[in-house]
Amino acid sequence: MSKKSNLGKGLGALISQYSTNDNDSYLDDSIPISKIKPNKNQPRKEFDESKMEELKNSIREKGILQPIAVREVKKDSYEIIAGERRYRAAKEVGLKTIPVYILSISNESEIMEYALIENIQRVDLDPIEESEAYALLKSKYNLSQNEISQKVGKSRSLIANSLRLLKLPTSIKDDIKTKKITMGHAVSLLGLKNKTQMLAIADRIKKKKLSVRNTEDIVSTINQSPKKKIVKAKRKAKIIQSLNEVESKLIHKYGTKVSISMNQAQNGKITFEYYSQDDLNRILDILINKS
Question: Which fold has domain 11-157?
């Protein structure tokens, strides 16, 4: 039997492929919680307190509806493969036993793969934990991005962007975990060339509640090539010089202060200053007669 043929199809595939030889692999409330230990390679590092509280309330009211999956590491000692949230919640509400599927898996790498994929498919991981899970599948188990995509049922581009998140500074990864910035913001920040820029723009995102589009525009501006910046600066300087020359001519012609302003869209206004009613009439007379 191919050991990886059912990867990516959820806990049902895991059970059908690795259930014990007898028909009693499912044991209803027969395993003492004290004999079960968590998977040391559990991909999820954080457990949302509010969701855990909801799960504990559900267990108090209805019990464990879906058994966890474990393997026997030695006689009367078991390790979790999938279902650590249910295990933790059951333990915290004071259950002494828990329903389990005992699976006959001995290959450490496959245990890790299934633990990762089960968590990813159940949407139990935050974006950074998910990125770390993909990275582990890629580095430790030599899976390509295409293979990971097929196994977890997500697009290759999503896998690629997720893996890129691990290049971010630690504080920004923490912001993603705590939902202060989104994955869209984070992917935009990765377009910057150094961590100092990333941190500065991440701070602006949080303080000014910038959208992903705003962030993309800022990053695009920062990343303009030096040559383009020089050309743009020269063009701006030429426009300013031209406006100053026109202002000087108008001042000379009308005998008063004149200012010209222009925005980025090249819209603007010309302002004539006057200091008395007679001064206003004089300026208007010049304008009207000129017309």
Answer: 3.90.1530
